[in-house]
Amino acid sequence: RNGIYPLMNFAVSRPHALPRALSQPQEDPQKAKTPTPEPFDVETRKVVQMQCNMELNEDKSQWHLTLLLILEDKLHRQLSYDLLPTDNSKDLATELVHYGFIHEDDCEKLATFLESAFHKHRSQA
Fold this sequence. Notes:
Blueprint: E1 47-56, E2 63-71, E3 76-82, H1 89-98, H2 107-124
Helix pairs in contact: 1-2
Region (Disordered): 18-43
Protein name: NRBP2 protein
């Protein structure tokens, strides 16, 4: 009887007012919690194969890294990142361990792999 959207006829004509709190409770400064960073999951699978591709961006000012990792259970993990001039392979590998993308035992292996890829692609440019 009211058409295709009958619930539209029952919309409130004005929004409800929210009750205001009379006073805000004061927190004890010693009980106030500081924000703690979220814990990241630890990767338990090891990397069995790595592939890396580096390309210069359109304006030729920055390298774009695409990393394909194949883990023990055949999971493919593709990561991409715009490299900064200050980035190095060891820090990138350590960061991937920190955020749970690779197993801690693969850190050194990935750092060595990235270092060789950096030298190869930057020498071609």
